[in-house]
Amino acid sequence: MPTLVTRCYTASAGKTKGKSAEVKMLYRWCLALVLGLATAGAQQTTSDTRAGAQSTIPETPAGRTFKAWLESFNSGDRGLMDAYCRKYEPSKSVENEMRFRDMTGGFELLKVVKSERLQLEFLVKERRSDTKAIGKLEVKDGEPAEVTSLALSAIPPGTSVSDLDFKIDAATRTRVIDGTIAKLNEFYVFPEMAKKMEDAVRARQKRNEYDSVTDGDAFAKMLTEQFQDVSHDKHLRVDFSPARIPEMPETPSGPPPPEAVARYRQQMERMNCGFDKVEVLSGNIGYLKFDMFADPEICGPTAVAAMNFLANVDAIIIDLRENGGGDPKMIALVSTYLFSQPTHLNDLWERKGDTTQQYWTLPYVPGKRLDAKPAYVLTSKQTFSGAEEFSYNLKNLKRATLVGETTGGGAHPVSGHRIDDHFMIGVPFARAINPISKTNWEGTGVEPDVKVAAAETLATAQKLATEKLGSK
User: Fold this and answer.
1) DSSP 326
2) If exposure means fewest CB atoms within 10 Å of the residue's CB, which of 107, 194, 203, 266 is most exposed?
């Protein structure tokens, strides 16, 4: 979804020397925030536009697709958004898009910054705050012109649009290539794979394949694809920020700044910590849908409230079809409600320092536990990272029946590293090791016990639960 905080969702954390996992986890989220992905409420002025100004959307394939997205998004109508997604972005989650719309209230178009036939750059303002964002849309050539990329980045205070419109040069390309390769060689979970990625990119560099690239987004996307082509690691990515990335210590020695914590808390509150729906279905079957495993220090009360609402159900269905992952501490918190005894869930081994952090269920959680109740987990191709860990843990422990599609296949926690003022790289620095299988789901995903299309999972799980309860 084109959300200002989307890159925060797939962060995960392990233990590092001299610093708790809690600090490291929130630090990564804060690093994403300062990239301009979540500056909600920022007061700013720019000389490039005036609030409420309108700009004509061009009659190009990109322009027509952008107009369709903006109109459906701003309408707040699920039917219109569903029709848009089916036509222009079939892989997009309507639920996520509607949730993002609820967060922002929609967008006012301030200015079309740049227009090409298959590409559009634009400036918008949130209706519910003073936050402005620069956006970029790329489409395929065809009818309809389907979206290949739609990204929004909030503009930090005091930044004008003209500051964001610059081209990268040869020195920048060299600096970014050298910097990303250095971080991979230092931190990537498999050193030999880091060297293979280096060799592949150096060979392309030697053939002058990057010489004509002047767009920062395009360069970051190119490097991401080329690193992933070698490693097949979906967590690994290079990111470009048109706004300057503040300098931050590689290994922070203390907690994040209070303003960053406050910003993160505000975002979580606006999103209800990712918890989307909790209800009791017919047959006294509980249903819980949440789309991220947020930091329990801030979002623990929301998770506890949801689980306590379902305290007296006879079976529980946990919907992770749109869950992109998050904090292993929240995984442990939610998992604890499904077990009566201390249970070893997962280990994270970190390459640098050769350290291992174990994750167990908690000794105490408020309210009743559902340890004796049948449990079902709904999965899809979009289920990723920490949501895959939750599913994989329960499957290996034979605690839940997984219903749906094979998950995305990302088992390596990520840390963010600044390369220069505008580029950073997310490096998978550790790997999950399940205490039962002694391996993980990296590259393969988690196979469901009952394979059905994502759209059919809830009805299938309800049927399974009803049959299970009826047989007792």
Assistant:
1) B
2) 203
